[in-house]
Amino acid sequence: MSTRFYLNLFAVVLTLAVIMLGAYTRLSDAGLGCPDWPGCYGHLDVPTSQAAKNTADAAFGQAVETGKAWREMIHRYFAGTLGLVILLLALLAIRRTGNPHQQRVLPWVAVGVVAFQALLGMWTVTLLLKPLIVTAHLLGGMTILALLGWCLFRQGPLMWRWPVSGLTSLRLLAGIGLVVLVCQIFLGAWTSTNYAALACPDFPTCQAQWWPQTDFETAFTLWHGLGINYEYGILSSVPRQTIHWVHRLGACVVALTMLILAIRLFMASRTDGRWAGLGGALLAAVALQITLGISTVVFHLPLYVAVGHNGGAAVLLLTLVAINHAAWSARHG
């Protein structure tokens, strides 16, 4: 394997870490731990001395909470490092090699997404955790992961030209699976950013009902105006449980879609046994994600389980990217 491959692999792992650090920052209520951007109270680190804290308090009108501030800054440090790694990958993509599968465009697309991510990160703070911005920030991280994953699989010789019968149906199912998952990731992010994770504290019912009271209009109003502090949420109980319930329904749709896709992959293994490996990986990722999602509710939002649920979504996305790459690189068997 080339140096570019291992750098790409490092970028994928680092992106997973950044996504989970972002989830940890958000779920531990540290999203406004630093009231400014890109520094923290006017510094590139967190003010620790009492004199520095007093100066920061006076300048920003907000008391320094050292733990929250460090969580926010560590997330920024990791994100900044990821941006530099992706830029290096893009610069390396300019060099011509003998690899016919070398990606030249996607690394630069990733650079563009990273730049927009930086803006979203700034707006997350300056717009006081507006759900639409925070949700877009999470989706941007997932987009970067998908782009880097595709570039990685493109370089991997094990993912190329597998024979399969019924190639069109496999590609269609793989594409549908990816779209359904992206919609569910949006719903999960919308649940989290509106503080609706415990709006339905029981399982499998919601507020002891199979179909709880709902308010879809308020629940999915994307823009509530400026100048509102969204920390801990602004929605009442009914819109929040609506968001949560729709996310659960979406999980059912995802589970069914992934099961159908996995069956199709196992059928494809009749032509080449490697397809069964992807089918097994898909079922394992779905089972893990469902388990984490249910545990989040049953155990009342334990922090590390909730963070793991975000990481599980990222792993499931990467699995779907691998399946789509294999399907679109396959040949008729």
UniProtKB/TrEMBL annotation:
Its main location: membrane. GO terms for molecular function: metal ion binding; oxidoreductase activity. GO terms for biological process: heme A biosynthetic process. It comes from Salinisphaera japonica YTM-1. GO terms for cellular component: membrane. It is a multi-pass membrane protein. InterPro entries: COX15/CtaA_fam, COX15/CtaA_HemeA_synthase. Pfam families: COX15-CtaA (PF02628). This is Cytochrome oxidase assembly protein. It is found in: Membrane.
